[in-house]
Write a structure and sequence with these properties.
Length: 344
């Protein structure tokens, strides 16, 4: 059984495409295939918006790894990438974003390999790549596709600000402008779970962590309604961090926004940890990050600290909270969502 995800396995079948190239890996990559790839290439650089993947790869000296919202060549003495290996992301808008950003940076003549599961909508690359050049499918296996193409046009300059989706949300007497980059959890409106969570919160004070902040809706509402709090917001996605920073700035609010792989970069003295936690990893459902969030929450709260989360009602989170805190209260419930609360 291969330790690689299926898109990496189909890329592994086609190593000849990468021989002697300076490869830039981007997109929904989540395994150690770039390490093997380095044995066949002049160089391998991984650009990722996922902080957990960045932390995992940073320990390997065979490759360079970069985390952020835009890829920027770091070393002028190194040859630039001449082939992009793009793992097709779950959001089509994120694929468009990555293509525009990477092609603008690498330019005409750059080759591209795109791999991804067929159910992810990878076929869209055939139309999406037309403004840059030609691309076609060369392999299919394990319900995945392998495309190769080349940028033959001069790509337009990339402007990050143009990629923010902007929309208004209202909560009580507060009206906020939300900024959201492609691929960030955001409905373009106030999602019901977040609204139920905010309806249930008490007045806040002290140091407050919005865990899995996304586009910054919950954190911004909390800051607007509780101007005395010391707000911190974290997410595993660089795109989410940039979105929340832009949302705070657009509304004249202040807070510290940073990347964290669950609690990797957080403090341990919060008065409140508040979250509408994600439960998707790539195309699949994953609860492990939220379970770790709940299990380790007491260690990151001060002595009087409290946890508030919203979750789909069918998820079995109360026993985990019970085990961590000794007691879990259900403060609010609809046929779809529940608000759970625990005190240290």
């Amino acid at each position: 059984m291969s330790a690689y995800i299926a898109p990496s396995q189909i890329a592994q079948r086609q190593l000849a495409y990468f021989e002697g190239k300076h490869v830039l890996v981007a997109g929904e990559s989540e395994d150690l295939f770039p390490i093997e790839l380095a044995n066949h290439c002049q160089s391998v650089t991984v650009f990722t918006t996922h902080y957990g993947y960045y932390r995992q790869l940073s320990a390997h000296t065979a490759i360079d790894c970069q985390f952020g919202v835009q890829y920027e060549p770091k070393d002028e003495n190194k040859a630039p990438a001449d082939l992009v290996l793009l793992y097709w992301p779950k959001a089509k808008s994120e694929a468009e974003y990555l293509l525009a950003m990477l092609m603008a940076q690498l330019g005409e003549g750059c080759e591209i390999v795109v791999v991804g599961e067929n159910r992810s909508g990878i076929k869209s690359i055939e139309k999406m790549f037309k403004p840059y050049g030609t691309i076609r499918k060369y392999d299919s296996a394990r319900r995945c596709s392998f495309y190769w193409g080349q940028c033959t046009q001069t790509p337009p300059a990339f402007q990050l600000d143009a990629w923010f989706k902007r929309y208004e949300v209202s909560y009580q007497e507060t009206r906020l402008t939300i900024h959201s980059l492609p691929g960030v959890f955001s409905h373009g409106e106030f999602d019901i779970g977040s609204q139920l969570l905010l309806d249930t919160l008490p007045p806040l004070s002290g140091k407050v962590l919005d865990f899995g902040c996304g586009a910054g809706v919950i954190g911004s509402v909390m800051a607007a309604l509780n101007p005395g709090i010391e707000l911190e917001m974290c997410d595993i996605s660089a795109l989410a961090v940039a979105s929340s920073q832009a949302t705070l700035a657009a509304n004249g609010l202040t807070g510290r926004v940073f990347a964290s792989d669950i609690y990797s970069d957080t403090d341990d003295d919060y008065q409140f940890i508040i979250s509408n936690p994600p439960f998707h990893s790539g195309l699949d459902t994953s609860y492990s990050a939220t379970e770790t969030l709940l299990e380790q929450a007491p260690a990151h709260l001060n002595r009087q600290g409290a946890l508030f989360i919203v979750a789909n009602s069918f998820l079995k989170y109360p026993p985990i909270i019970d085990a961590a805190f000794g007691k879990c209260e259900t403060l609010n419930k609809t046929n779809k969502f529940a608000i759970y609360h625990a005190k240290r």
